[in-house]
């Protein structure tokens, strides 16, 4: 598997800690980059994905005070969801939102830029809608809203493209349960008292996830950490836990409450062939009469785990709140093809390949 090109040199954190968020939960966090830079919090995917040391390289360490943390039950946070006796009763979206706000207060930050990836776009947007006064901007990459319709598509609708892989995913559960809600079935299996049943379910869940990722052009295969049985068990258990409950969100809650982030600068980044991308812009974000948020579409060859990954956030001078010269208010958005470290074709990230009508 090729090593992803993330954009900035490896760095070490200048601060780490375990934040007691209550309910017996300790959340791991670290700070990297410039202590006096623009505060930026990275909200990982999954649920249960956690961050890695390479995640520190997503943003310019000279410009940003980069905060990474592992959500409840995963990564370096404790207790870990891979352990059968770890209760998930206090692991829901509302608790994760509260943890994020508690972390901000613990670090003494008045406001911060929120970057979310995949599931992190759901959590990041939900956080911003609840605490808009604490958010300077939103960067949402590989956008997912975790609606039940999205979950049904990701864990069922995509079988038309991956029939053999989906058959293996379905057949890994008991025969009498295969025609039911598979996310619910997997949620039950992943909480079985039998460790073999749990691990078998986790491996089958992850095999389907890896197959879906393979639809994205340029994929180099699953990451090393996804081969770790403990990681796979926690990841699958948390995913099934959240997805079988619709992330405890109303079906279109994040769209319908987008007026709460009215005026907050935003940047949406999504792969043309990212199969989880069934998303539309909420008409109330950023709001009528305002210059629209930048819309950058990653083009072929840019899945979430790949070479040629762009660095996020954009370099200093291209903040998401600044309108592009190519984007007339309310009419155009930049469309970019990222092929290198920071830019389309190795050029300046300020130069759009083309502009097309906004929807």
Shape: globular
Characterize the largest beta sheet: strand count, sense, and whether it forms a barrel: 8 strands, mixed
Number of domains: 2
- Approximately how much beta-strand content do the residues carry? 15-25%
Structural class: alpha/beta
CATH architecture of the largest domain: 3-Layer(aba) Sandwich
Highest CATH level, the class of the largest domain: Alpha Beta
For the secondary structure, the number of strands is 10
Helix content: 10-25%
Low-confidence stretches: 1-5, 288-312, 314-359
Calculate the terminal CA-CA distance, rounded to whole Å: 37 Å
Order of helices and strands: EEEEHEHEHHHHHHEEEE
Widest sheet, order of strands: 1-2-4-3-5-6-7-8
Q: Roughly how many Å is the radius of gyration?
A: 20 Å
Report mean pLDDT, rounded to a whole number: 79
The total count of helices amounts to: 8
User: What is the CATH superfamily label of the largest domain?
Assistant: Alpha/Beta hydrolase fold, catalytic domain
CATH topology of the largest domain: Rossmann fold
Q: What attributes does this structure have?
A:
2 domains; disordered N terminus; 10 strands; alpha/beta; 359 residues
Explain how this protein is built.
There is one protein chain. With 359 residues, this protein is α/β, with parallel strands linked by helices. It folds into two domains: 15-146 and 248-357, 3-Layer(aba) Sandwich (Rossmann fold); 150-246, no CATH class. The chain is 25% helix and 17% strand. Helix 1 crosses helix 2, helix 4 runs antiparallel to helix 6 (195-213) and helix 6 crosses helix 7. The longest helix has 19 residues, at 195-213. The chain is globular and about 55 Å long. The protein starts with 14 loop residues before the first strand and ends with a strand.
């Amino acid at each position: 598997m090729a090593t992803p090109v993330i954009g900035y040199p490896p760095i070490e954190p200048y601060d780490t800690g375990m934040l007691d968020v209550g309910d017996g939960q300790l959340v791991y966090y670290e700070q990297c980059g410039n202590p006096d830079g623009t505060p930026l919090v990275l909200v990982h995917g999954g649920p249960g994905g956690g961050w890695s040391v390479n995640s520190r390289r997503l943003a310019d360490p000279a410009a940003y005070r980069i905060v990474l943390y592992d959500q409840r039950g995963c990564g370096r946070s404790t207790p870990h969801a891979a352990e059968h006796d770890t209760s998930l009763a206090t692991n829901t979206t509302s608790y994760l939102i509260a943890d994020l706000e508690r972390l901000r207060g613990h670090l003494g930050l008045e406001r911060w830029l929120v970057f979310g990836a995949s599931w992190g776009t759901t959590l990041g947007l939900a956080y911003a809608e609840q605490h808009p006064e604490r958010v300077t901007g939103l960067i949402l990459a590989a956008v997912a809203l975790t609606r039940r319709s999205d979950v049904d598509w990701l864990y069922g609708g995509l079988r038309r493209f991956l029939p053999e892989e989906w058959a293996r995913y379905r057949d890994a559960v008991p025969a009498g349960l295969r025609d039911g809600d598979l996310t619910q079935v997997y949620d039950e299996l992943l909480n079985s008292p039998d460790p073999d049943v749990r691990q078998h379910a986790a491996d089958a869940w992850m095999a389907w996830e890896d197959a879906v990722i393979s639809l994205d052009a340029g994929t180099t295969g699953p990451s090393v950490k996804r081969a770790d049985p403990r990681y796979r068990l926690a990841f699958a258990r948390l995913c099934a836990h959240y997805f079988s409950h619709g992330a405890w969100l109303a079906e279109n809650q994040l769209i319908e409450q987008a007026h709460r982030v009215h005026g907050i600068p935003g940047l949406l980044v999504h792969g043309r062939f990212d199969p989880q991308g069934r998303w539309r812009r909420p008409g109330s974000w950023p709001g009528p009469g305002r210059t629209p948020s930048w819309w950058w579409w990653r083009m072929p060859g840019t899945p979430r785990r790949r070479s040629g990954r762009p660095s996020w956030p954009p370099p200093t001078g291209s903040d998401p709140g600044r309108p592009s010269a190519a984007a007339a208010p309310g009419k155009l958005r930049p469309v970019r093809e990222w092929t290198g470290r920071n830019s389309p074709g190795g050029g300046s990230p300020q130069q759009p390949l083309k502009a097309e009508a906004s929807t």
